[in-house]
Design a protein that fits this description.
This protein has 286 residues and is of the alpha+beta class. It is 33% helix and 26% strand. The strands form three sheets. It has a six-stranded antiparallel beta barrel with strand order 2-3-6-5-4-13. A six-stranded antiparallel barrel has the order 7-8-9-12-11-10. The protein has a two-stranded antiparallel ribbon with strand order 1-14.
């Protein structure tokens, strides 16, 4: 009996040491980069089986819905659909007019951004790592560095793409830095994730910087990682001190980072090469 216990302990120590070695290799080297997608593919069925009890419980809790509430939601959605359809007709007319103007001016046009809906499979519970696992992977064209959005603004970007699953780092993750600009003043700056809570920090701003509380920040497009013009955050605090060389600025993300169930993966628009407008013929030359 003692011999069996000793073998179990030895096996546990060996497995623990092997786990530490693999974690070290994965963190500090690229030697496991080729095998990571294969391991991710093997883990997907195990992850799905482990989620079955939670899915069953969630379904059971959602069954006793009030019929009146469903009818009210249906009526509200019906009204919103009609309203959005009327607005869409105006937008399509405006877009067509803009296309005609671009053609006349021989300006560069842009195709609309392409998006893909993804569901959040798992949220990282580590308080210092703000990441999500989503149900989209390389088979759908997902790539590392791809931008993720919700209905209100920028969520983050894909930092690891597997075959069927990908990891998204939120903009509040400590590894993230987003080039942004103030809509009001046009001031360019970098917004950094703090890794704690839903807050961004904007360091190294001079006391004379044209920035104030309430300013809306959008992506500036610098660095060509995040497309220009997507909402990012709203400035909530600007503190100037005579004892410090720079302002202390914090901002609150506009995206709903605490209640994410679905998100959009973005493929930025590609520029369209304009056609050449033939020169006007001179009647006298004919």
């Amino acid at each position: 009996m003692t011999y069996g216990i000793g073998r179990s302990r030895t096996r546990l120590v060996v497995l623990a040491l092997l786990s530490l070695v693999l974690m070290g290799l994965d963190t500090y080297t690229d030697s496991l980069k080729q095998t990571r997608p294969i391991v991710g593919l093997i883990v997907v069925p195990i992850h799905l089986v482990a989620m079955i009890p939670a899915l069953i419980l969630a379904r059971a809790n959602s069954l006793p819905l009030d019929v009146v509430r469903l009818q009210q939601d249906y009526q509200a959605l019906k009204e919103n659909r009609l309203l959005l359809n009327s607005r869409l007709q105006r937008f399509e007319a405006i877009e067509a007019e803009n296309d005609r103007l671009r053609s006349l001016l021989s300006a560069t046009g842009y195709t609309p951004d392409e998006v893909l809906l993804a569901e959040v499979v798992q949220v990282n519970v580590d308080p210092y790592s703000r990441t999500l696992l989503i149900n989209r992977g390389t088979v759908e064209g997902v790539y590392e560095g791809q931008v993720a959005l919700d209905a209100n603004g920028l969520l983050g970007q894909v930092v690891r793409s597997g075959v069927f699953r990908s990891t998204v780092a939120l903009i509040t993750d400590s590894t993230q830095a987003i080039p942004v600009m103030s809509v009001r003043s046009g001031l360019h700056m970098l917004a950094y994730g703090t890794g704690q809570g839903n807050a961004l920090t904007l360091p190294f701003l001079e006391p004379t910087a044209n920035l104030r509380e309430g300013d809306v920040l959008v992506t500036s497009g610098l660095g060509q990682r995040f497309p220009r013009g997507y909402p990012v955050a709203r400035v909530t605090r600007v503190v100037s001190s005579l004892e410090e060389s720079f302002l202390r600025v914090t901002a609150l993300p506009l995206a709903q980072l605490d209640s994410i169930s679905e998100l959009l993966l973005l493929w930025p628009a590609k520029p369209v090469v304009p056609f050449d407008i033939p020169p006007k013929q001179d009647p006298s030359s004919g």
